[in-house]
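In this supplementary section we document a worked example of the pipeline. Step one takes a protein sequence of length 133 as its only input; no multiple sequence alignment statistics are reported here. Step two produces a three-dimensional model, which step three serialises into structure tokens for compact storage. The input and output of this example are shown verbatim.
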Amino acid sequence: TRLEKQFQEELAVKDAKIKYLKGYVMQLQSQMILQQVYCARVRRQLRAKENKLARNGKRGGKVMGDGEGRLLTGSVVFDLVDKHEAARDAEAAERESRKQRKLDYTAEMAEWTRKEEKRLKRNEGGLVRWKAA
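The serialised model returned by step three reads:
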């Protein structure tokens, strides 16, 4: 009938619209995935560059790395050298402190693990006695 034909046409239009929207959603999802991959790559590159700059800045052996000539007997130069040596010594002390903290943590974790195993065994024994009673 005429009404059924009209409904069929409207159904076909709606179906085509749904297919179009599904394709559009898939396109947006694909675009989002590509953007995430790109952003992850850029973040990784930026992190590597920052790490390299930080590594070179901290461990660099240059007191005055600006390329300018200096009179090496001036008090400014001695102050810069003192600051540089103090920073280097502080960094070494921090490394040693970090190493000691790691050793302390490992020892504390071993102690805690031992006590935890003892507690679990004690609880298992109590559970067995409780079930037997």
